Amino acid sequence: MKRKLVYLFLIITAIISGHYIGKSCLNGDPLWAWLGKQLEFGFDTTTINMHVMVLNLGLHFTINFLQIFLIILAVAIAPKVSDSIK
Fold this sequence. Notes:
The chain contains two helices and two strands. The chain is an alpha+beta fold. The chain is flat and about 55 Å long.
């Protein structure tokens, strides 16, 4: 249970910090700008009208290269971190 929580915490931390650091790299030095390049995928909004209610469905994901790198790093170090926690 502890190991799963450590994995979850490290991956969420990697996603959040990768987002903000990637955005700052995008506007900075051209050498590091590739870390902020984003990959976007998903589908546009679809409307389902049932005369009683209207349902709109859509899903978009955006991830940058720094987030991918940090997620891989988080998965690699999670077992060592969970073993060091008593």
